[in-house]
Amino acid sequence: MEHEIGPIILTIVVAGSYFLPTLIAASKDHTDSVAVFLVNALLGWTVIGWGVALVWSYTDRSNSLKVPAKKTCPHCAVIILADSIFCRFCGREQPVNQAAEARRKKATEWGG
Ligand SMILES: [Zn+2]
Fold first, then answer.
1. Where are the domains of the chain?
2. Distance, CA 98 to ligand 1 centroid (Å)?
């Protein structure tokens, strides 16, 4: 019986390795996951195509398209933009954001 299970496991491992770029792209919700799959499936056997698909699966452009960072208002627990100075729901001032505060101070100094 064992000599029949061996090839099946080997096939699963090989297929899993072969479609690793597609699995990575799918798990990352890649914007070009379909294209990665096509390169992976059609050119994967050339090794170069597999390498291209693998690199492609890691270079996801969707990160640059994502909405700005958000945080939870400590006063009303509503999700607001991380750079907010005042909460747009409860109107209360937000804890100081170091970078934003530095910019604000500089602007105040210049404004006189
Ligand atoms: Zn709030």
1. 2-64, 67-111
2. 19
Quick: pLDDT tens for 98-107: 666 677 677 7
71 CA from centroid of ligand 1 (Å): 11
- Distance from the alpha carbon of residue 19 to the mean position of ligand 1, in angstroms: 46
Per-residue pLDDT tens for 8-26? 999 999 989 999 999 999 9
Q: Helix/strand/coil (H, E, C) string of the chain?
A: CHHHHHHHHHHHHHHHHHCHHHHHHHHCCCCCHHHHHHHHHHHHHHCHHHHHHHHHHHCCCHHHHCCCCEEECCCCCCEEECCCCECCCCCCECCCCHHHHHHHHHHHHHHC
